[in-house]
Every structure is written in C-alpha cells, then in structure tokens.
Design brief:
With 451 residues, the protein is an alpha/beta fold. It has three domains: 140 residues, 3-Layer(aba) Sandwich (Alpha-D-Glucose-1,6-Bisphosphate, Chain A, domain 3), CATH 3.40.120; 201 residues, 3-Layer(aba) Sandwich (Alpha-D-Glucose-1,6-Bisphosphate, Chain A, domain 3), CATH 3.40.120; 87 residues, TATA-Binding Protein (2-Layer Sandwich). A six-stranded mixed beta sheet has the order 1-5-4-2-3-6, sandwiched between helices. α1 packs across α2, α1 crosses α4 and α13 packs across α14.
C-alpha cells in the first residue's frame, strides 16, 4: 500500500475533535468504505453509539454511506461497545461499527470497526479502509438497490442472558457502579442487579456533556466513587469509561485497585494461557507461576491482545488499563463482564483490598529521553542490536513492540519510541530500588550516548 495514503486510524480506531478531525465527510466516507470492504450489496452492518452529543449526527452520516453502497444498517442506538461487538457476532453480521471516543473528553468522537467474530479490526484491515477512502474506490449502488435500516435493540435481552450465564455471582454483595454518564448508564446497573448484587448507581444518566465526571476512569476522576464506596460500606466499586469496554475497581477501603495487580489476580483465577502487553507488570507472571499458567506478551492495544488470544488459543487477555477480553464469551473487550469477574473473586476469596495487598509490589520507573522524530528509527535499531549487551543477566529480548529486555531475577525494561511526542520512553520494573535505578541509568546513558 502506498505510503502517501493519509492515516486515519490510531491505536484504537479513528478518534479526534468534532468539526475539525471527525467531520460528516469522514463519517460518510467510513460508512461507504466499510460497506465496500464488508461485501457490498446485501451485507449487514451493526451500528451503535455512546452518549456523546455528536453521536446521532455521526450515526446518520455513517448510515448514509452504508446505505449508498447497498448494505443494510442494523441499528443498536445507544449501546456500550461490548454490546455492539456481541451483536456483530450474535446476529451473524458482516461488520460492526461503534461511534465512540471512549475515555476522551466530550468534544471528541470516533469510530471503531468490528469483525464478524466481535474482534476489532486489525491494522492491516484498517489500512485497507484508509486505501478505499483515499482512492475513492467505493462500490455504490443505484437507487433501487440502496440498503435498508432495521432496529435490533432486541439483542440486548440476549446479551444480558448470555452475560449472566457466564457469571457465578451469588446474592448479597454491595456494589457502587459509576458509569460516567456514558453508554453503560442503563445496562451495567441492571445487569449487576440481575446478577444478585445490591447496587448503588452514580453518574448513570446518559449525558454527552459528562457532568458527573469525565469519561477517563482515572484516580482523579473517581474521587466521588471512592468516597461513596467507603461511606456506604460497599464491598466494591466499579467504574466504566464512556463506552464501557473498560472496568476499574475500587476496594472496600475506597482505594483504587492497582491495574496490574487486578489483572494478575483475575489471570491467576482463570489460569491456562493469558495474554497481556509488553508493558504489564511482573506480578502477572508471578501469579500465573503459582497455578502453572503461561503469560504471552504482545503489543500495546486491545486488538493486539485479541489477535494473540486467537493465535495462541488463550483463556483470557487484558491490558493493565482495565481493557479485558473474555474469549469464551466474545472477542470484544467487555467492562461489564470484567466487573462480574472481579465481584466473583470478592465473594470467593474475601475483601478485594486483602487480595490486592497479597500481591507483591515491585519498584517501577517510567522515564523518557528527548529524541527528535527523525532520529527515532536509527536509535531503536541500535537499542535492538546492542542494549542487551550493556545490561546484566539478560534472559530474553522481546522485539514485538519496542524492545523489552528481561533479566534472570524477573526485572525487565521496555524501550519504546513515543508515537505522539519527541521522546524515547523507558519503562521498567525491578526486584529492588537499587536495581531499578541502575537499569534506568544504564538505559538512559546508552540512548543519550547514541544521540
């Protein structure tokens, strides 16, 4: 594919500010491109959106593009991303489209694409969509072959039933759920109640201005949830982002759960083969060692996790951000099912705080070295070639996403070029503070020496 083709997709679909980056022209073109790619006339495409103010506008534009190419639109209306992925799979459709900017502020919107099995489009598929748009090779149809629109909200009841069949939650646990005024505002509290939980819902009225809190489930934005969990003596707090493909947990003490530790205890419970990213903590490996499990690492991004799950027939996969994929249910990340999984652990093993505190913590350093964009490729070539010689007791060099070097005691360092800024990033975790700073200094000195 020609290199001059403009890049539309980032690490998680198309995303940008409404009016400047996400326009009606972009939406119509994506609609026509996905219809062309998915098979043209007669193909069925699921379409849903989150609670943003611009969503109906973008939905109408995408719909127009799909219909113009003879495909049918199966409208979900407002729905969380995992429901759109599930519907794409359940209804045996040709593709799915979710209009969302996930955790971005309200002035943003975006478009994510889904395969028939509920897995996000891979990078090679996204490049084809970009090429179709750039070359304007749309398969439009004449007036008598324009596609049709069908409402498919009935699939929500199937989703709830199938989701509850996956869970083993017993009545009695008290949950506070914060839906960020997003797409899961109705569905997540209902499902938790149907599972037998006593539920207090906050920020669970859909509102594209996100008046309760911003959709990014960060510690800063979850202060209200943390206080409510503690004040109401709840067993656990659950937070979603704007489209609910992520789940963040708050323990009964009102503390935000460490992302890596939460991923580790769920991975240990599921066992077998677990996929995570190159920047995930050593504690997942330690937990999986306890149950004879295997950790497979891949590039950062939920689509890479999904691909690795399929390639390795893995039991579970997730990023430390709270984006988890449950392949026995659907290949789309599902924050609601993830919430049910953590609630199961609390019921089975006791307070979440106790479970998390039992997982060892390792000194972590995140640093960066200034590096102009035109230098990044040459610097990374030298890092791949020689950095492992500089470090001690190296047992593995993983080049799947940047360079991740593992040492005999479990310490590791990841060197990756920033995709958005003029930096080379250094992320590391070590078995002691002294070793952490030694690794950091060795890596920084090496890169600065090259510069």
């Amino acid at each position: 594919m020609a290199s001059e083709i403009p890049k539309l997709f980032g690490t998680s679909g198309i995303r940008g500010k409404i009016g400047s980056e996400i326009t009606l022209d972009v939406a119509i073109n994506v609609g026509m491109a996905i219809a062309t790619y998915a098979g043209g006339k007669g193909s069925n495409i699921v379409l849903g959106y989150d609670s943003r103010t611009s969503n109906v506008m973008i939905e109408n534009a995408v719909t127009a593009g799909i219909l113009q190419c003879g495909c049918n639109v199966l409208k979900m209306g407002m729905a969380p991303t995992p429901l759109v992925g599930y519907a794409t799979m359940k209804l045996n459709t040709d593709a799915g489209i979710m209009i969302t900017a996930s955790h971005n502020p309200p002035e943003y919107n975006g478009i994510k694409l889904w395969n028939p099995d509920g897995m996000a489009y891979r990078q090679d598929q996204e490049r084809v969509i970009e090429e179709i748009i750039h070359e304007k090779i749309f398969k439009t149809v004449s007036w008598e072959n324009i596609g049709k629109i069908e409402e498919v909200k009935y699939v929500v009841s199937d989703y709830i039933k199938d989701l509850l069949d996956q869970a083993d939650v017993k009545p009695g646990i008290k949950v506070v759920v914060d839906c960020a005024n997003g797409a899961a505002s109705y569905l997540s509290p209902i499902i938790l109640r149907m599972a037998g939980c006593s539920v207090i819902a906050i920020n669970s009225q859909p509102d594209g201005f996100f008046p309760g809190r911003l959709p990014e489930p960060s510690e800063k934005n979850l202060q209200e949830l943390m206080k409510v969990v503690k004040a109401t003596k709840a067993d656990i707090g659950i937070a979603h982002d704007g489209d609910a493909d992520r789940m963040i947990a708050i323990d009964e003490k009102g503390r935000m759960a460490d992302f890596d530790k939460l991923l580790a205890i769920v991975s240990r419970e599921i066992g077998g083969k677990v996929v995570t990213t190159v920047d995930a903590s050593l504690c997942t490996d330690k937990c999986m060692d306890e149950v004879g499990g295997v950790v497979i690492r891949t590039k950062v991004g939920d689509v890479h996790v999904a691909e690795a799950i399929e390639e390795n027939n893995a039991n579970f996969g997730g990023e430390p951000s709270g984006t988890w994929i449950h392949p026995n249910f659907c290949m789309c990340p599902d924050g609601i099912l993830s919430a049910l999984r953590v609630i199961e652990l609390v019921q089975k093993y006791g307070p979440l705080s106790k479970q998390l505190d039992e997982i060892p913590s390792y000194p972590t350093i995140r640093d960066k070295v200034t590096c102009e964009d035109h230098q990044k490729e040459k610097i990374m070539e030298k890092v791949e070639e020689k950095l492992h010689i500089v470090l001690d007791d190296v047992v593995d060099v993983n080049r799947i996403d940047g360079v991740r070097i593992s040492m005999v005691d479990g310490s590791w360092v990841l060197i990756r070029p920033s995709g958005t800024e003029s930096f080379i990033r250094i992320t590391l975790e070590a078995t002691s503070n002294d070793k952490a700073y030694m690794i950091r200094n060795q890596c920084a000195d090496f890169i600065e020496g090259l510069l």
